[in-house]
Amino acid sequence: MQGTIASAIGVIHIAAAIALLNGAFTTFGQAKIAAQAIESIARQPEAAEDIRGAMFVGLAMAETSGIYGLLIAIIMLFANPLVEVLVNLIS
């Protein structure tokens, strides 16, 4: 029984680490959004306000993805309701 609980917790930690990888990819996405917005403003300075507004909406959407990944990882580590089910499947 002790080994099955350790196996279940190990699987949960791996899943949480995968969920946290979302944060790394979110960083690259936000950098791409900012770079494209700067390039667009450099090409059309008269449209800077519209581009800036669209950039902030895009950054908010990308940041939301990272926050959801963090939330899922925290739930899996500290309040996972499926630990009992996973232990029963392993044993």
Written description of the protein model:
The chain is an all-alpha fold and 91 residues long. The protein has one domain (2-90): F1FO ATP Synthase. It is 89% helix and 0% strand. It has three helices and no strands. The protein has helices at residues 2-43, 48-78, 83-90. The mean pLDDT is 87.
Q: How would you classify the helix and strand content by structural class?
A: mainly alpha
Number of domains as seen in the coordinates: 1
How many separate helices? 3
Order of helices and strands: HHH
CATH topology: F1FO ATP Synthase
pLDDT averaged residue by residue:
87
Uncertain runs: none
The end-to-end span amounts to: 7 Å
Strand-residue fraction?
Answer: under 5%
The CATH homology group name: F1F0 ATP synthase subunit C
**What is the general shape?**
rod-shaped
Using the CA coordinates, give the radius of gyration: 20 Å
Strands, count: 0
Which CATH architecture is right?
Up-down Bundle
User: Which range best describes the helical content: under 10%, 10-25%, 25-40%, 40-55%, 55-70% or over 70%?
Assistant: over 70%
- The CATH class is identified as Mainly Alpha
Largest sheet: none
